[in-house]
Amino acid sequence: MSESIIPESELEEVELYHAKSWWTEKVFTQDAKLIAIQYGLTAFAIGFVALVLSWFMRIQIAFPELSIISEGTYYQFITMHGMIMVVYLLTALFLGAFGNYMIPLMVGARDMVFPYLNMVSYWTYLVAVLVLFVSFFTPGGPTGAGWTLYPPQAILGGTPGQESGIILMLVSLCIFIVGFTMGGLNYVITILQARTRGMTLMRMPLTVWGIFTATVLALFAFPALFVSAVMMLFDKILLTSFFMPALVEFGENLTYGGGSPILFQHLFWFFGHPEVYIVALPAFGIVSDLISIHARKNIFGFRMMVWAIVGIGALSFIVWAHHMYVSGMNPYFGFFFATTTLIIAVPTALKVYNWILTLWKGNINLTIPMLFCLGFIVTFLNGGLTGLFLGNVIVDVPLSDTYFVVAHFHMVMGIAPVLVILGAIYHWFPLITGKMLHEGMGRFHFWVTFVGSYLIYFPMHYLGFIGVPRRYYEMGQTEALYTSSAADLNVFITLAALAVGFAQLVFIFNVFWSAKRGIIAEKNPWNATSLEWQTPEQPPIHGNFGKELPVVYRWAYDYSVPGAEDDYIPQDVPNEDVKLADGYSELGVEKT
Amino acid sequence: MSTTSKIPLKDGVEGFVSDWSSDQRAFKGVPWGKAMMWIFLLSDTFIFSIFLISYMTARWSTVEPWPNTSEVFSLTVNGVSVPLLLIAIMTFILITSSGTMAMAVRSGYQKKRKQAGALLLLTAILGMSFVGMQMFEWSKLISEGIRPWENPFGARQFGSVFFMVTGFHGVHVSVGVLFLFLTSRKVFRGDYDTGRRGFFTWQKGRYEIIETLGLYWHFVDLVWVFIFAFFYLW
Question: Which residues of B touch A234 (CB under 8 A)?
């Protein structure tokens, strides 16, 4: 996979912005790596809030007699948990944090192409997070409309947080989208226009491919959310009727009339389904790289993996209405969207096969990142298979709005991407901080998280089959409809959830403890080939690479190449400089 | 700066792919700012498309009759009601401003500093007069009793969607006008010749920036053509 032609540099060296004070260097920084850490810490902070909310909800469901939270609070917590986890944690973490850190390093650039815009992007994101967080303390509290915010109920009386929570939520989403657009343009242009010499798109690591495609999806999908948020704000504040039909509330005619609630659902899911892949595609990319590195083997079917990522991205725009089978839309739509939904399973399955074939006969090192990757493959497969059930209209109708759905999407876009994020943190922590994360705490964290997640979500499939509806804050009178095992299972799930929550506390402790006291990491501890590990300093400093930008001679997956002495060849090493193993005259050719 | 590849491209899909994924840059010779503006405009296209689709849905789903646009948007001149008069002038002005913008880009690349600056200023003034006339139209409609939440001439969605979409477009024009003024000032001062750094970004600007701004301006015009067709002619 290497060519001896070294292309001339097409780009002039850009002048880096050098900060002059502590404020512009550390706080209002324009260095993508620091911005990435800011993004990451903010996302984890607000994500932790969402995690704590889920504990309250689980305790309430398992022990309704304690009445730890009221029914209104339960809806508020469920809404905030969902929205924070999907948008403010996962999207921001994959694109804002991993994107900012990895893209310039992996494509061999000194920084993002628009560092100033990049900085503004983070601060806008922070404002969005704060606006959302403030809604916990406003009169009426945060909105309780469910994370999908369906009108008309989202803005009507009787829904918790309709006083101000819903307004803050919509405003926060708009701010988030503005901030994300600034960052997203940066990621796309850096990847397209600012690669180092020799770095063709087909030599980029899959991590970058995943983040790139996800960013493009986000740039085209977020407009739908933006527009629907603006219209709902108008419905709420200016009493327009975009989404509001004529309604009678408590025997009184409301002033609304003539709007279309289903329009919101279409717009929301036109954003919402690509959003699933905005979260999943970076995870796919990262996990491909991690598996290849920790199994010391090139990724199986690299070009196929790239096409699968691009194909999934394109298809994700024409499957949205499979979230709306029970919404009352035209049933013929359901037929079309069920078909496209099943088609999207093909490239997705292809990726799973390729991961498994990469592991096949690989030199699998059961390092902590590898454990998380294996956990991801199993979890994602599991969540994907239940997706086949829900993608078919006739099976979906009885299962929708039950715990089966909760189990499905938590497996496929909750646990699976989170396992990748955690694995990626264990993998790149030495690069980012120069220290290793503590091994023992790491293994404890993995096993409790992985096994615990299964203990939480596997029983939920069963609850769904027996018809336990989601979003109920207690089973109450409906309990008579189910076997008594439903209540017992809820207690079991809650205990598992609390255990998993505890493991995350251990992880947080590990991160801060290891950053300070951890073992100093050796250079390139995992013997990886991609450019981020080839910087002169570890962790990389401002400007990433030394005087000269690296030149790329090969793809990112030259592991265990026959004839090479080491089992990896970094991307910036030309064929002539590769140390040959005994008995070889050149790479892949044995002496005769 | 060489923009030709040294390795001959293969035929068919393979050549197409290796061309797009070629070394260092996917779009040869395209500056970063210009590439960014294109991608941003693609994203913005989605925003306006969704606004227009929502408008069509609203017009569909409402039960009250849609007001007759040639009456609502008519101006009375000397006692004669002329339909679409104001809009015709507004559209003419905006499209003219696209022309002056294009001329500014050309003068910029020719390094004719004063000419480029003057044309940018002219474009900005045309843009401002467009926004001014839009304000006049808004106040006329408001004085006739049309509000986002009610409309004496028929369906209330008319008012909501009209104010929302033209307002969103008007904000785009206003932002464009602001940047036209700023860029015109920079061009007059000679920032792109002396390499003076930007106040916020600390980057040196080039005359290419005029083209990037021009892309935005033409886009805003193009969007207006669609708004004109869907709101005033339908």
Answer: 148, 160, 164
